[in-house]
């Protein structure tokens, strides 16, 4: 500010916003991220503007999750405050998405689709969540980003459960399992086995359910995860 560096001030405000978000000071975080947005728009800095929109989305997303954890509810059964907070997150992610499309930034589009999928899932809009996660999946494959691909499969599996499409969920969870083994991530592998065990219970295929729950148990024991 002293040297009149507006872009520097914008970036510093954004960093403050992200730090306050991590500290759980969501309202202060929004003020700082909004300053980042305002200055970026004033300076015609499209990249900064996109980043600020994404960051504000993240603050509302984190706030919504924080509020809903305190109430421990299923996706879709939310208080008015949580709903409004998650809807705001969604709006900012949508604005970010249209701007990064304009900028041709595919990686940023992938991040926006993933977060839109997650907020729509929490809001109980499972069909919308699926559409966003499919876009996320396509971009992850484009970049060969196996970790993002794995997350997308997992999220697609979760959303299909709530639509009662257990067989489709099982297919997505199997892909999650396959990728977690490729990535050699045992904790995620255990999680996938757990999800498959539950899904096969819902499908009333108890033999398969037992098989996957046993795999989950073995990994949990290996990891010493009580």
UniProtKB/TrEMBL annotation:
> What are the subcellular locations of this protein?
Cell membrane; Cytoplasm
Superkingdom to which the source organism belongs: Eukaryota
Where the TPR repeats fall, as residue ranges, is 150-183, 190-223
A GO MF term: G-protein alpha-subunit binding
Which keywords does UniProt give here? Cell membrane, Cytoplasm, Membrane, Phosphoprotein, Repeat, TPR repeat
The biological processes this protein is annotated with in GO are: establishment of mitotic spindle orientation
Just give the chief location class.
membrane
Q: What Gene Ontology terms describe where this protein resides (cellular component)?
A: cell cortex; plasma membrane
What SMART domains does the record tag this protein with?
Answer: TPR (SM00028)
UniProt similarity note: Belongs to the GPSM family.
- According to UniProt, the name of this protein is GPSM1 protein
Q: Write the gene name.
A: Gpsm1
């Amino acid at each position: 500010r002293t040297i009149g560096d507006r872009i520097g001030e914008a970036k510093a405000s954004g960093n403050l916003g992200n730090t306050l978000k991590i500290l759980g000071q969501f309202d202060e975080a929004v003020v700082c991220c909004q300053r980042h947005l305002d200055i970026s728009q004033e300076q015609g800095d499209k990249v900064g503007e996109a980043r600020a929109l994404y960051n504000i989305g993240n603050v509302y997303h984190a706030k919504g999750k924080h509020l809903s954890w305190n109430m421990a509810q299923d996706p879709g059964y939310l208080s008015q405050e949580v709903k409004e907070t998650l809807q705001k997150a969604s709006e900012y992610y949508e604005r970010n998405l249209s701007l990064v499309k304009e900028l041709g930034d595919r990686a940023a589009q992938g991040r926006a689709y993933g977060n839109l999928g997650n907020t729509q899932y929490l809001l109980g809009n499972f069909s919308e969540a699926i559409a966003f996660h499919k876009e996320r999946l396509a971009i992850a494959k484009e970049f060969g980003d196996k970790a993002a691909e794995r997350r997308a499969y997992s999220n697609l599996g979760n959303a299909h459960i709530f639509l009662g499409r257990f067989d489709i969920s099982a297919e997505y969870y199997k892909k999650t399992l396959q990728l977690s083994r490729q990535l050699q991530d045992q904790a995620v592998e255990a999680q996938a086995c757990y999800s498959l065990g539950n899904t096969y219970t819902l499908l009333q295929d108890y033999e398969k359910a037992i098989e996957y729950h046993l795999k989950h148990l073995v990994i949990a024991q290996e990891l010493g995860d009580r």
